[in-house]
Amino acid sequence: MSTAKTAKTGKGAAKPAEVKARAAKKAALKGTASHSSRKVRTSVSFHRPKTLRLARAPKYPRKSVPHLPRMDQFATIRHPLSTESAMKKIEDHNTLVFIVDLKANKRHIKDAVKKLYDVEAAKVNTLIRPDGQKKAYVRLTADHDALEVANKIGLI
């Protein structure tokens, strides 16, 4: 069988190469992508394709030095209150009363009292007064006396 296929010579052998050449000529003249089909859109709104988003690699830092903390203990506690009701709290409930920064939270106030007056706060209650200032009631632990701390501050 193999001898019968190889026996063909002449015009028959040149035919596949000729067909191939014609196909190449046609592809070169017309182009291969002559029948391009349009994508069927199922939605009326166009959604931009998600492309690669690389992480930033800055050439230099935008800030040379980071700023100091804006809410330190001195900015948190403005001043202690020395009203009659505040004095009653000091004597009866072992509680100090402060006017604090409006942006300070209870954790900030607790840490600031610990740093400034070296006393441990058991709990902190806050309220915003009608004049817009924040008032903090700082209840001290049993091992610290609010009266002594008030004397040290200069309230009494």
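the 2nd protein, sequnce then structure:
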Amino acid sequence: MVYNISHLALGLLTASAAAFAAGPAAVNLRTAGNFVILAKSGVSTVPSSAITGNIGISPAARSFLTGFSLISTSTVFSTSTQVTGMLFAADNSVPTPATLTAAVSDMGTAQVDAAGRPSPNFLNLNNGAIGGLTLSPGLYKWTSGVTITSDIVLSGSSLDTWIFQISGTMILSAAKKMTLAGGALPRNIVWVVSGATTMGAGAHFEGILIASTSVTLATGASMNGRILSQTAVVLQKATVVQPL
């Protein structure tokens, strides 16, 4: 009887926590979530960048991992002094090609899911000029681009979620920062961007970035999150740390 009561209590606690979470249902990254950076056509770095997590490219080959000074101690993956993790490309040995094909497919599924969520809580907030704002959990949609020219805050609990649907480009200006408050976690924040994404020199970004086109982190830019790009990722002495 004690066993049943304890399990009932645990179930009620879990249900209670879910009930108090604000924001849309989480986006499932599936195997794409095994990479801190995943891209189709390539990832380049101007040394020295600092990446924590695995990097994958597919269908591109190892030659499109540029600037990393790849160390090939295995045919399945490469390493680099700039990466705390492994680098995978479509021309590595099995099982890497199949693993990457699945991850890229999962990236596309996540993109369709995030971009297709209906009934936004906020539509075209500030016409896309969101610098200086504090953003609460919810589903946000812009039918054009978004520019962040001053610091922003994402405020919510560790259970809360955000999805930002951006139909145009996204620009985070140089030295401007995203800050999390109230226990908010980067793994619960998804930015799905149709146009190019640019983070200026010294800028700081928080969340999972799912991009239809290119992503560029200028000199000294940093982020806590993941970059999932349908094209290429360009790093210039940048720091990217995968969320826990």
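The helical segments are 2-20, 96-116. The first strand starts at residue 37 and ends at 39.
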